[in-house]
Design goal:
2 copies of one chain form a homodimer.
Chain A lengths: L5 H10 L19 H14 L3 H4 L5 E5 L2 E10 L5 E2 L2 E2 H15 L3 E12 L4 H18 L2 E10 L7 E11 L15 E4 L5 H11 L15 H9 L6 E4 L4 H13 L2 E5 L7 H10 L12 E5 L1 H13 L7 E7 L5 E5 L5 E4 L12
Parallel strand pairs in A: 5-6, 10-13
Antiparallel strand pairs in A: 1-2, 2-7, 3-4, 5-7, 8-11, 8-12, 9-11, 10-12, 13-14
Helix pairs in contact in A: 4-5
Chain lengths: 356, 356
């Protein structure tokens, strides 16, 4: 290991934007999708790599080459366990990245595939994951066109980690981004929330419920394409992964500097998920999903958008859950069944580690 | 863990293209850049994801959107140690991916950055790596435009793993690919070989040599741009990473189905590297580099190409090391100082694990 000499090390420490006395080491929560992660990204990464594309705080970067507008995104997948009810790390690695492209309003086209395998990982499991990736890419109409395989020593990984990066093409003239969110916009959710996180938690902890809770892991690109093909005006799209619905809404409200108001009773939650959340002490709006998103659309387009989503098997439970209000600063409130509203905050720590 | 039932599991096992009785588990060598890795890729991944872009066996995928030709590539970096003489995992993650784009004849433009951090990783090291990435992107004229951060439990990683994917633009009409290699082509190497692997090995094993051997980790995109700007015809480019010069040549010879003949005395090797290789029992042509490549050009362009490369600080030792001969099947031979030729094979096992 190359050690820095005294003065050099002190200078480095002094310039670190995360106070090292408070956070000498990376915590699980720095990858949890909540406040600590957002803080790490916004103080360390965004200012260091400072550029307009990264600064847009979108699910991916959108740029133009010649006449072509493209979206580009990446995600690493470290989910544990790798095989779970409703999916596995392979299909998840396709869905997650394809969905991020869809959230940019792009039609996903190409994926890269980076595998980090741990020495000793069963070859049969690698084959199973490979086939799952292939099946998911076929369903999502994307191709794996480039890849990389690394192997790390036994004990230095956890079976398999996958990175996918994706390129999608934007075939319309709309700008779909947090900056487009306006007062009076309507918030539509594409389906029920909380299944992915609870399915993983149940499996990890060996919890058994009356019916097995299945992850919602799915490609949502088709739903977005249907909206675009019907010329629905879309102001913003966001998938509800780490940190769940709540964290996604807070992030958008803060970026757009508007007030997002939602109603708790409108949020679809399966009975099994609600029950599990009560037992485990979770709030379903903070639990991760891998096949759900919100569409923020102008009021005139809301009903048609809802009808289009509901026609899709993966959007059958789509619902309007709230709207955007004018405000001096970005925040989110949720009205409960009794009519009282409360502020919704981002996940602060780490609720369910390694769910994606 | 979701377990497959008897029949389902047997079917899966039966279809696995890697014989599970021979390789029940992933070995370090499956990521080593040699025969086992090539076999894993060519039997499991390429046929499963079967498409023309992946099948081209290039350093990246080349495709067209509208009038624009782009290259797309990915690599994960698991190098150990993460700080080494001449670089670190951050700069390496930029150089490696930028170089892969350059090998496709593309000008690198955008990078994605996926971090997999281990819980407990020092925040100061993360900052140091972040700054190194930034410095390397600036030197390579690329931007990090999208990213992702995951944290895994302590003991399930090794400090930090990085994935970068890259997009580059192809601004010329040439097709630069293994399929373009022709008899009579000249093989030019951009500089001395073996420094990256030996620098890492020395550090890992605590070996001390008279002078510290520095990794050659560097961006080679400028050299390729200089060749293209001078209208040099380039048939193929390949960087000499895992598996070194030998494995790269064998891969190209087999893909192009030609005979590549090189001369041992022509291959530049620093004295320190040669000495270290003798002590450690390595052959420098199998040792990994991270700032070296070969350019395969028609004979009429060879001298001019050589002069252009030599003008660049990173190509000062560029040399012609061999040529392409007509043959019935792809293979590589190397003539030694005594004038005898021997077949050069790919690395079969794992010489130096986790060098990138």
């Amino acid at each position: 290991m190359i050690k820095l000499k005294g003065k050099q090390a002190n200078t480095l420490k002094a310039t670190c934007p995360i106070p090292i006395e408070d956070y000498p080491q990376v915590l699980m929560a720095h990858g949890g999708g909540g406040k600590l992660m957002r803080n790490l990204i916004s103080t360390m990464f965004t200012p260091t790599f400072d550029n307009n594309l990264l600064n847009s705080e979108h699910d991916g970067a959108v740029f133009q080459f010649g006449d072509t507008r493209l979206a580009f995104t990446t995600d690493s997948y470290v989910v544990n366990p790798i095989f779970f009810a409703g999916g596995d790390i392979g299909s998840l690695a396709v869905h997650g990245t394809v969905n991020d492209l869809a959230m940019c309003g792009a039609r996903p086209v190409y994926l890269s595939l980076g595998l980090i395998l741990e020495e000793g990982f069963p070859m049969e499991d690698l084959w199973r994951v490979t086939q799952s990736i292939q099946q998911a890419t076929q369903n999502a109409h994307v191709q794996v066109v480039t890849g990389d395989t690394k192997v790390v020593d036994h004990g230095k990984g956890d079976g398999i980690y996958i990175n996918t990066a994706g390129i999608g093409i934007i075939e319309h003239q709309q700008t779909i981004a947090p900056s487009q969110i306006q007062p009076d916009d309507v918030i539509i959710i594409s389906g029920d929330v909380g299944r992915h996180g609870i399915a993983l938690m149940a499996q990890r902890e060996g919890l058994e419920f009356e019916t097995t809770i299945q992850s919602d892991s799915a490609c949502v690109s088709g739903l977005v394409q249907d909206l675009l093909n019907a010329n629905i005006t879309i102001h913003c799209l966001r998938d509800l992964t780490r940190g769940g619905l709540a964290s996604a809404l807070v992030e958008l409200a803060e970026t757009a500097q508007h007030h997002i108001a939602i109603e708790e009773v409108k949020i679809p939650v399966q009975d099994g998920v609600r029950g599990a959340c009560e037992i485990l002490g979770f709030d379903p709006i903070y639990v991760a999903n891998e096949g759900r998103f919100i569409a923020i659309v102008p009021p005139d387009d809301a009903d048609q958008a809802l009808n289009i989503l509901r026609k899709h098997p993966n959007g059958a439970d789509a619902t309007i859950i709230g709207c955007v209000l004018d405000a001096k600063r970005g925040h989110v409130t949720m009205r409960n069944v009794l009519g009282t509203s409360r502020m919704i905050d981002m996940l602060s720590g780490e609720q369910l580690p390694r769910i994606c």
